[in-house]
Amino acid sequence: MSTRSILIAGNWKMNMGPNDTADFFEQLDAESQKQIDGVIAAVCPPFVSLATAFDSRKSASAVKIGAQNVHFEDNGAFTGEISTSMLTEVGCDYVILGHSERREYFGEDDAIINKKVKKALLAGITPIVCVGEVLDERKQNRHFDVVKTQTAGSLEGLSASELEKVVIAYEPVWAIGTGETASPEQAQEMHAFIRDELAKLFGKEAADTVLILYGGSMKPANAGELLQKPDVDGGLIGGASLKPADFAKLVAIAAEQK
């Protein structure tokens, strides 16, 4: 059994304003907000709900808070953007970078993501770096090449010690919001491949410390099977993280694996 922690990170996307965020924490089972050895729970609300998320947590809450994006500059004329200093001011522990929706809808490439990763690390924020293939790339048997390129490009120039502060999330894009899910075997195959690529780039010792999350429609019904795989270290959760009961169940399932 892996000695790595399990991270259950909810990506709320463009959902859950401040009122819904307050309701979420009010409804979240108190047991899910306690520290569990080897399990980390986090939610990543929209920017406007970050402060509410902090205020709504119970004083003993172990749920971490993250953002869904950040800019690579410190400040300036970047209308609509958010800096790492703004995130640290509200106490963010994590930031999601390179999500497939950012790549597809906002034109973010590996070079942009790489700059954001470096900026987050400088600020002491853990980047959750997303990589993954679309359906056509998998059908063309290009999925390993795509993920290899994204992984290397997004992490270019990092040291082994910096890599140890990064989380990777594998997104089979064809399984996001479609109801489709990669089989546990497919997930493990890609997660093992990513870890092997990290070992080639940064050394096995550093690669073995990195949490690699599954980001393709993990939910309570399939989480147990996925989390049993040796290289699946948690989930980047979409729809299921919007429901307090489902999120609590995912945390409980993760605890069962430790």
TrEMBL record:
<comment type="function">
    <text>Involved in the gluconeogenesis. Catalyzes stereospecifically the conversion of dihydroxyacetone phosphate (DHAP) to D-glyceraldehyde-3-phosphate (G3P).</text>
</comment>
<feature type="binding site">
    <location>
        <begin position="11"/>
        <end position="13"/>
    </location>
    <ligand>
        <name>substrate</name>
    </ligand>
</feature>
<dbReference type="GO" id="GO:0006094">
    <property type="term" value="P:gluconeogenesis"/>
</dbReference>
<keyword id="KW-0963">Cytoplasm</keyword>
<dbReference type="InterPro" id="IPR020861">
    <property type="entry name" value="Triosephosphate_isomerase_AS"/>
</dbReference>
<dbReference type="InterPro" id="IPR000652">
    <property type="entry name" value="Triosephosphate_isomerase"/>
</dbReference>
<protein>
    <recommendedName>
        <fullName>Triosephosphate isomerase</fullName>
        <ecNumber>5.3.1.1</ecNumber>
    </recommendedName>
</protein>
<keyword id="KW-0312">Gluconeogenesis</keyword>
<dbReference type="GO" id="GO:0005829">
    <property type="term" value="C:cytosol"/>
</dbReference>
<dbReference type="InterPro" id="IPR013785">
    <property type="entry name" value="Aldolase_TIM"/>
</dbReference>
<dbReference type="GO" id="GO:0046166">
    <property type="term" value="P:glyceraldehyde-3-phosphate biosynthetic process"/>
</dbReference>
<feature type="binding site">
    <location>
        <begin position="238"/>
        <end position="239"/>
    </location>
    <ligand>
        <name>substrate</name>
    </ligand>
</feature>
<comment type="similarity">
    <text>Belongs to the triosephosphate isomerase family.</text>
</comment>
<comment type="pathway">
    <text>Carbohydrate biosynthesis; gluconeogenesis.</text>
</comment>
<feature type="binding site">
    <location>
        <position position="217"/>
    </location>
    <ligand>
        <name>substrate</name>
    </ligand>
</feature>
<dbReference type="GO" id="GO:0006096">
    <property type="term" value="P:glycolytic process"/>
</dbReference>
<keyword id="KW-0324">Glycolysis</keyword>
<dbReference type="InterPro" id="IPR022896">
    <property type="entry name" value="TrioseP_Isoase_bac/euk"/>
</dbReference>
<comment type="pathway">
    <text>Carbohydrate degradation; glycolysis; D-glyceraldehyde 3-phosphate from glycerone phosphate: step 1/1.</text>
</comment>
<dbReference type="GO" id="GO:0004807">
    <property type="term" value="F:triose-phosphate isomerase activity"/>
</dbReference>
<feature type="active site" description="Proton acceptor">
    <location>
        <position position="171"/>
    </location>
</feature>
<dbReference type="Pfam" id="PF00121">
    <property type="entry name" value="TIM"/>
</dbReference>
<feature type="binding site">
    <location>
        <position position="177"/>
    </location>
    <ligand>
        <name>substrate</name>
    </ligand>
</feature>
<keyword id="KW-0413">Isomerase</keyword>
<feature type="active site" description="Electrophile">
    <location>
        <position position="99"/>
    </location>
</feature>
<dbReference type="GO" id="GO:0019563">
    <property type="term" value="P:glycerol catabolic process"/>
</dbReference>
<comment type="subunit">
    <text>Homodimer.</text>
</comment>
<dbReference type="InterPro" id="IPR035990">
    <property type="entry name" value="TIM_sf"/>
</dbReference>
